[in-house]
Amino acid sequence: MCLEVARVHHGLVVGQPNVGKTLLCLRLAQASSNLVPLIIHESPSGGIVERRLHLKDAISTLVSAKPHTTVGIQTLALGFGVKVSERFLLDDTTGLTPDIEDQMVRSGMARTLERIVCATVILHVVDASAGLARNQLNRTDELIRSVSMATKVPYFLIFNKLDLAGAPEKAVSYRKRHRETKIFSISALKDIGIEDLLDNLRRASVVK
Ligand SMILES: Nc1nc2c(ncn2[C@@H]2O[C@H](COP(=O)(O)OP(=O)(O)OP(=O)(O)O)[C@@H](O)[C@H]2O)c(=O)[nH]1
Ligand SMILES: [Mg+2]
User: Fold this and answer.
1) Which CATH number is correct for 119-208, 3.40.50.300, 3.40.50.720, 2.30.40.10, 3.40.50.10540?
2) What global pTM score does this model have?
3) Residue to substitute in 100, 189, 190, 194 for testing ligand 1 pocket (most ligand atoms within 8 angstroms of CB)
């Protein structure tokens, strides 16, 4: 369901499970000076839990190598934008993947897809250390990319895990062949490339 507040900017963070979506959201909050973000968790069944966590606690509670750690939608506000018209919310989502039996995860994925139409900017995160072959995204990421592009809102393709072997080379070679796409190479773990991404989000959220 889209938030019915005029001109609140909604960044949607999408991607496959375990690519670093949640850690990226928390790094962006940190870089925007929101060090104790209020995190609103909406479960696949619609239940809402709000909690305010220090970043360190948020990272240890919400980030994990186990796929589908995030099930539902987790919203947090970035620290820039004092006026409502400038407020920037980030929706962290359930990782999208085919062939999932678990009903909760499937409902969570359905909620992710619903949110795509509400987003004012889409941040598509891929694991640069794993997800690229022959300068192509894999099939699931290609699908996420084409659905995102269909919305006509700004689309950022984010290669994460740049600290891992092989990732920088893959990101560079993909970028050479896809100059039309706004691409960011980052490491959410090592806090690399986050400021630049945040600057671009700020620019994308200037009230038109
Ligand atoms: N090496 C490395 N690991 C990372 C990076 N970003 C995230 N990770 C790790 O990847 C794992 C998944 O991170 P999450 O942020 O939970 O990923 P997610 O996409 O939110 O995962 P789901 O909620 O399960 O869909 C964790 O073990 C993180 O520490 C990165 O830049 N480099
Ligand atoms: Mg997550």
Assistant:
1) 3.40.50.300
2) 0.94
3) 189
